[in-house]
Amino acid sequence: MTNPIFKTEGLIVGYGGRPVLDGVNIELRSNEVLCLIGHNGAGKSTLLKTLFGLIPHQGGQMFLDGKPLPVSEPRALTASGISLMPEGRGIFPGLTVAETLKMGLWAAGVPQNERSDRLEWVMSVLPLLRTFYDRPAGTLSGGQQQMVSIGRALLSKPRCLLMDEPSIGLAPKLFQDLLRPIRELHEQTGMSILLVEQNVKEALKISDRVIVMKSGAIIREALPEELSDNAKLMELY
Questions:
Q1: What is the pLDDT of residues 182-203, one digit of tens each?
Q2: In angstroms, how far is the first alpha carbon of the chain from the final one?
């Protein structure tokens, strides 16, 4: 078993005194695609936002490369090699794709003299971005907007990519087309991916390991083939 790059121990997160995550322990290992599944409201998106420092945790600890994270805030985590592709794409409709990615380079803290090469690298991973590079994001299809969101998350060249529901609003074929280059990038670079998905059948096809969340707690860890039976999945929900 490989050592975890990113892990939590006893993570507790709540809103208004109500716990949403209750003692969550997860490990994102080196060179793996880890799929997190669970019912709506289970706490999956809250977990990803907490891992990226967007939501503070009230208890527990997060570790990167085996060392406790003293500060959990997005800019510090980005510099450490963690990136988040948020749920709902999070794009600005009035900005062109070019403007969106240039703003993303600044937000990711990429040095000025490296930005051109970094942008070219992202384009090599997602070459279709070139075909609508100068268009306002608001005029793009759902699949194109999702590609922009993924491209922006890749600008920091992360070691760990957190992906929150990339299939929302997409047909299964479009979802496959989006995940294929990400899986290839994972295989080429060893980038670890934590994928939160409701389209379980498609997500399992590219995952190495699966964890199941229910009511703010991890209730099961399995290999994808162990959950290929719909009846088994229904039992977990």
A1: 788 888 888 999 999 888 888 8
A2: 28
Q: Which two tokens stand for residue 184?
A: 């290839």
**CATH at 61:** 3.40.50.300
* In a domain? residue 126: no
pLDDT tens for 139-182 read 998 888 988 999 999 999 999 999 998 887 777 777 777 778 77
**Domain membership flag for residue 148:** no
User: Which region, left, alpha or beta, applies to residue 41 given φ > 0 means left and ψ of -120 to 50 means alpha?
Assistant: left
Decide if 72 contacts 18 (C-beta within 8 A).
no
How many domains, in total, are found in the chain?
1
The boundaries of the domain holding residue 209 are 4-88+160-236
> CB-side exposure of 181: number of CA atoms within 13 Å?
16
DSSP designation for 136 = B
The set of residues, in sequence order, having a beta carbon less than 8 Å from that of 225 and lying 6+ positions away, is: none
Of the candidates 187, 98, 110, the one whose C-alpha atom is nearest the C-alpha of residue 154 is: 110
Q: Dihedrals φ, ψ of 187, to 5°?
A: -70, -35
Tell me the pLDDT band of 230, cut-offs 50, 70 and 90.
low
* Integer Cα distance of 150 and 137 in angstroms: 13
CB 114 within 8 A of CB 82: no
Q: How many CB atoms lie within 10 A of CB 135?
A: 14
CA distance 44 to 116: 35
